Amino acid sequence: MAAMLFVVTLALYFAATVCFLAYLLWPSEVLSNVSLGMTATGFASHTIALGAGMIGVTDISTPGFHEALSFFSWVLILVFLAVEFRHHLHVLGSFIVPLALLSLVSAAALPETAPTLTPVFRTLWVHVTLSMLGTVGFAIAFVAGLMYLIQDGLLKSKRFNVLYSKLPALDFLDHLNQQSIVTGFPLLTLGIITGALSAEFSRGSYLNWNPEQTWALVTWVFYFVVLMGRLTVGWRAKRAAYLTIIGFAGVILTLIGVVIKSHGPVS
Amino acid sequence: MHIVVVGLSHKTAPVEIREKLAVPESRIGEALTRLCSYQGVREGILLSTCNRVEVYAVVDEVESGYGRIQEFLADAHLSLSSEELTPHLYWHQGDRAISHLFRVASSLDSMIVGESQILGQIKDAFEVALTHKATGIILNKVVKKAISVAKRVRTETKISEMAVSVSYAAVELAKKIFSDLTEKTVLLVGAGEMAKLAARHFIANGVRHVRVTTRNPQHGLELANRFGGTAVPFEQFREDMASADIVLVSTGAAHYLVSEDDVQRSVKQRMNRPMFLIDISVPRNIDPAVRHVDNAFLFDIDDLKARVEQNRGGRLQEAEKAEQMVVDEVGIVRQWLQSLEVTPTIVALRTRADDIRRAEVEKTLGRLANLSAQERELVEAMASSIVNKLIHNTMVTLKAEVNSSEGSAFVEAARRFFNLGDPAVSNVIGSISSASETCRSPREESKDAEEAVLRSGSKTPDH
């Protein structure tokens, strides 16, 4: 059942993505409501799929990339629906839903159950969950940054098109960007700590400087600098937008690197 | 005698041209004097706002009148040649000129359809023209009518409810930069009408902190009090700019008051918090190079217009109603103008008949020396009665046909039948004009202009 629901979710997110992208170009509220409905339905089916998947989880199972990416996509949509519910910001869907779809498609491309290793998996689950939550924060920051740059460009070039009217105020996007990093950064920090702990359990060392770990640390340092820069010397607005886009590109590279290199559990 | 308009507006000319052509308030009197010194220009009124520069005039001949006015516009600005100007100008005569004035006054031609400032600006322009006796019987009537049409449009359509003004567009743009205006600070530089209006709009939208700076400290203080804000010394406002999220500039200065460096510095001090700068001045007071500064968003009056253009759809229906009103009212003025042509004919006819009657009565009574007073009266009454009965139908017909398409043919016929000489319409109006000293000699006017300059010089130098 979980597999079928997963496919249903994929189909719904795909349709929602198409509608949400069309919504960027046409000033139609119907379009956004339809996309929103599909996203919400997709989210419900995804939730059930994940829940059904969880039932089968035992201590011996380990979270693989399939689960991680699927979970990432689920949280992303959850955050979107929460923001949408509070701010009625349909246009956010045009950016987040495609991202969630992309992540879910990647999940579908990966094997569902990962090979089993040593039984230290409780910490591993925590590690993956926290890291993914942190990544969701950065993803939202990325989306906010992207929307910021678009709106900034439209305002600067004075192109008052459909997109301009749909995108929210610049300071809202900047604030969303800040909040996402402020939330995502501690989660990633905890994710890295638990990762190091599980590595210690499984391999006997906290850090063995493999490329994924190095990249993860570089990403952590990068976001730390971005956050500090914002709080101390005013790296906000356009600069923050650029930096968070670059940062998220780093995150994606890390993930891709990890996936390509290892077919085993998250290190 | 023809009513014409020559001018340019935001629809035909970019702000670069408009700012060059704009005539400062203090020099309008002088300009009117010059306008009226052109041969064949009988009446004139000059409307100069940041969105349009237009000359309405009554001229003897349309073509030469157009030429004169264009010459007048180009002459005022040495930096602009007539060739540069021509592509941006429009020319209308007769009904179309009147209709244009009515549309402008009713804010149907405005950047923001339905805004009410233009009516005040027309009233001011008319006032100046009256002071300088540049208008006469025709423009006085037409401009007054334009004002009443505008009022009618405003009360009978919903056009102004939806529109408001450029300031509305400014607030709307601000909301795309700042999601919440309540904690934002507005800095008002100069006391131009538009900027004051915009400031009021921002306050109505929740802005609580207003800072005001004007060249005249007293004036600044008064304005600050009115907006419940604080006054900033004019010399310091550039340094103070960093504390403002929204900077509204509208002064009469002919040069840039705010440079790219000023804004760059302010944004830096603000730790890159966005700044929204609105330049409502024409000529512009903020260097357009400010556009290149990151996190600073500069909009001038043309940008606001572009924003507004898109919101117009909803207003079109009301505008159509207003357009119909304009058409009706133009019809009324046309009738009046035509009656102007008939009236002198009727007067001339009456005078001619009276002259004949008087001469004939005198001749007859001279021969009948022994008539009693009562009999003399009877003779006079009979003569009057014959004359009146003879011309009565003609007069009634003339009055009745005034508004028909053949009205002028009847006038012509009456003049020939009664040998009233050339169609003396222009002469009569001309004599009315000269009697009321419309467009007096340049010498007399220049004295007035000097006084006007002196008077305006004593006002706030901010404009």
Low-confidence stretches of chain B are 423-463
Report the oligomer.
Answer: heterodimer
CATH architecture of the largest domain in chain B: 2-Layer Sandwich
Mean of pLDDT of chain A: 82
Count of spatially separate domains of chain B:
3
Series of secondary-structure elements of chain B, N-terminal to C-terminal: EHHEEHHEHHHHHEHEHEHEHEEHHHHHH
CATH superfamily of the largest domain in chain B: Glutamyl-tRNA reductase, N-terminal domain
Q: Characterize the largest beta sheet of chain A: strand count, sense, and whether it forms a barrel.
A: none
- Rounded to an integer in angstroms, the radius of gyration calculated over CA atoms of chain B is 29 Å
Question: Beta-strand percentage of chain B?
Answer: 5-15%
Q: Decide which structural class fits the backbone of chain B.
A: alpha/beta
Give a written overview of the molecule:
- The complex is a heterodimer of chains A (267) and B (463).
- Chain A contains nine helices and no strands.
- Chain A has two domains: 1-116, Four Helix Bundle (Hemerythrin (Met), subunit A); 119-267, no CATH class.
- Chain A has helices spanning 2-25, 29-55, 65-87, 90-109, 121-157, 162-166, 170-203, 211-233, 237-261.
- Helix content of chain A is 82%, strand content 0%.
- With 267 residues, chain A is mainly α.
- In chain A, helix 1 runs antiparallel to helix 4, helix 4 crosses helix 5 and helix 5 packs antiparallel against helix 7.
- The two termini of chain B are 36 Å apart.
- In chain B, the strands form two sheets. Chain B has a six-stranded parallel beta sheet, with helices on both faces.
- In chain B, helix 5 (94-105) crosses helix 15 (316-367).
- Chain B folds into three domains: 2-163 and 442-457, Glutamyl-tRNA reductase, N-terminal domain (Beta Polymerase, domain 2); 166-311, Rossmann fold, CATH 3.40.50; 348-422, no CATH class.
- With 463 residues, chain B is α/β, with parallel strands linked by helices.
- In chain B, 43% of the residues are buried.
